[in-house]
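Structure first, sequence second, as always.
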């Protein structure tokens, strides 16, 4: 089975807490777009089109394998705790309002008795004569979209629920001073005259769009939509609140990063309202036949390995904007050629190399902005290089614009070589850093957070923190990072988390007292632990034996190898020279042979080609065939 079958960022299913008694069932939500008779078996110009024959085979396979088709009402009932979903529940969805939902999909839905959700972009259903919508390999006209009469017929059948896919949010808008086009629903529009759109203007724009869409659907079908399907899976908590106020009490995205969703009693808020958490869907991509379809549904996603490259935006930034552009193009091309699964992208500027943020690469309330660069680079990497981007940001290491406040909050370290950090026990630190994370998420699109290696405390620093007990100090810093994630998730939902961990707490567990870090605590707290597997940095006399001991320590910890990313170094900072490519490749081979699933390296010098591209690709490519595609 081809692993390029579906978008790699999408998860397979959601395990859902359902029903008044807390019974559990699975809900599989499938996302389709165009259904056509003439789709090529492989390599069709429209990667999101599925052939009619393959779609029929999907329905046949689901029915033969005891999947139970459910309606939107059944999902709403489960979310409200009224009735549990059946085992192996499946819901079909069709995005954009393409005419094939009526001419090709609807007859098969009736034949098999499968309910479905159809989500049109209402503006596209009312295209003026001569206007087109750029859609995949060609421009679509009004003839490619549903008519209101067809939509009404599907609605009246009782088999199809009509959702909003927005009125006019299925497009990009200027998202930064460079003019990058990013999803309209979550972007603060940039203009040279007014700068970034304010929160109030953004909310008013989203509300007006959803109001227009809802009004049109109600006028033509007799019922206002109860569901919002966010274009490009781009939404946030505030957008869901706006949709909920318009009667859209259920929302869908595409990115199933969690194995749990809020349904049933666990999904209700304190006020008794249904949870607004969006439900994930599996995107049908590259026309899967029934073998591909079945294979993907049975694939264990937990076995997929991460290949990550940690990148310095300081290498991209240049005072000359033209040079920044050239650097960005070099970076994106190199990441595309290497083919990792993830990029950990620096969101802060550290020109003096002391590990603390002197400035940030996004608009914010507390530090200078060196350049409005992070959001643009992250979007380019996600869309052009096809990688997941984690924002790499300090937890405590900030040099605030207010020097007096910096002096009040700074940890009084006894060793001047320590990273300058703020006191995590001061409520002002918590508020400031939380606002920095919220500002990052408000202005950029990314998939996860990498908490920097500045999140540590020596045993003689703030001795009262965590009552001076090592395990409690570790737990307190973990809780601090959870608060930062929550601040970011106001604007960027479903964030995956990783946190850097020094090697010594693995090799010498008693050193928790010197770092306030512990592997098992990190495994319980984060999706991934990014372990600094850097023998040269630690000046190990025998790097190979040192690495073997590190692997053994992780393997001895329950769940260690499943969720620990071994991050290698590509530069020997003590000797100030690159690690030899053969050494890097040998380390990767040895780690994989020892059972390590997740690997990364830092840094990547894309300007100086270090590590050399062939070695970087061999070490970090997530492709099945890790060589350049010609």
């Amino acid at each position: 089975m081809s692993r390029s079958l579906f978008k790699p960022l999408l998860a397979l299913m959601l395990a859902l807490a359902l029903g008044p008694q807390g019974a559990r069932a699975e809900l599989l939500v499938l996302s389709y777009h165009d259904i056509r008779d003439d789709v090529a078996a492989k390599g069709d110009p429209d990667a999101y089109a599925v052939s009619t024959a393959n779609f029929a085979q999907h329905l046949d396979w689901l029915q033969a394998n005891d999947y139970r088709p459910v309606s939107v009402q059944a999902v709403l009932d489960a979310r409200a705790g009224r009735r549990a979903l059946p085992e192996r529940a499946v819901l079909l969805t069709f995005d954009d309002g393409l005419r094939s939902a009526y001419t090709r999909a609807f007859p098969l839905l009736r034949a098999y008795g499968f309910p479905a959700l159809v989500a049109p972009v209402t503006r596209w259903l009312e295209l003026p004569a001569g206007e087109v919508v750029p859609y995949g390999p060609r421009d679509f006209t009004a003839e490619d979209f549903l008519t209101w009469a067809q939509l009404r017929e599907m609605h009246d059948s009782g088999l199809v629920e009509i959702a909003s896919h927005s009125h006019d949010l299925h497009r990009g808008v200027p998202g930064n001073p460079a003019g990058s086009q990013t999803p309209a629903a979550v972007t603060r529009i940039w203009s040279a005259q007014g700068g970034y759109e304010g929160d109030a203007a953004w909310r008013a724009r989203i509300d007006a769009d959803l109001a227009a869409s809802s009004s049109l659907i109600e006028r033509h079908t007799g019922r206002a939509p109860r569901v919002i399907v966010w274009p490009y899976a781009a939404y946030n908590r505030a957008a869901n609140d706006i949709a909920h106020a318009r009667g859209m009490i259920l929302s869908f995205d595409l990115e199933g990063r969690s194995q749990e969703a809020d349904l049933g009693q666990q999904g209700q808020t304190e006020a008794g309202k249904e949870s607004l958490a969006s439900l994930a869907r599996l995107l049908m991509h590259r026309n899967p036949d029934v073998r591909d379809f079945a294979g993907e549904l049975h694939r264990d996603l937990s076995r997929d390995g991460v290949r990550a490259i940690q990148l310095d935006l300081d290498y991209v930034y240049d005072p000359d904007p033209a040079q920044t552009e050239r650097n960005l193009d070099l970076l994106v091309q190199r990441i595309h050629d290497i083919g990792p699964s993830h990029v950990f992208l620096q969101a802060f500027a550290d020109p003096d190399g002391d590990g603390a943020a002197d400035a940030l690469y996004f608009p914010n309330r507390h530090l200078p902005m060196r350049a409005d660069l992070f959001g643009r680079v992250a979007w380019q990497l996600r869309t052009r290089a096809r990688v997941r981007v984690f924002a790499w940001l300090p937890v405590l290491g900030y040099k605030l614009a207010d020097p007096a406040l910096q002096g009040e909050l700074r940890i009084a370290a006894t060793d001047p070589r320590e990273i300058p950090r703020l006191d995590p026990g001061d409520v002002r630190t918590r508020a400031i850093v939380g606002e920095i994370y919220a500002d990052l998420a408000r202005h950029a699109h990314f998939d996860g957070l990498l908490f920097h290696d500045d999140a540590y405390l020596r045993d003689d620093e703030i001795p009262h923190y965590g009552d001076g007990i090592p395990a409690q100090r570790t737990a307190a810093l973990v809780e601090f990072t959870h608060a930062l994630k929550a601040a970011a998730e106001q604007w960027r939902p479903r964030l995956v988390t990783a946190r850097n961990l020094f090697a010594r707490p693995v090799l010498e567990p008693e050193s928790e007292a010197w770092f306030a870090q512990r592997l098992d605590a990190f495994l319980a707290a984060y999706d991934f632990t990014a372990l600094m597997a850097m023998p040269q940095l630690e000046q190990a006399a025998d790097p190979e034996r040192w690495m073997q001991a590190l692997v053994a320590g992780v393997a001895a910890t329950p769940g260690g190898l499943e969720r620990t990313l071994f991050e290698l170094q590509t530069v020997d900072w003590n000797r100030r020279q690159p690690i030899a490519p053969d050494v890097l490749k040998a380390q990767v081979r040895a780690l994989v042979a020892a059972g390590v699933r997740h690997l990364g390296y830092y840094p990547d010098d894309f300007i100086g080609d270090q590590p050399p591209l062939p070695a970087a690709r061999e070490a970090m490519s997530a492709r099945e065939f890790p060589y350049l595609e010609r």
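Margin note: Confidence is low (pLDDT under 50) at residues 1-24, 256-276.
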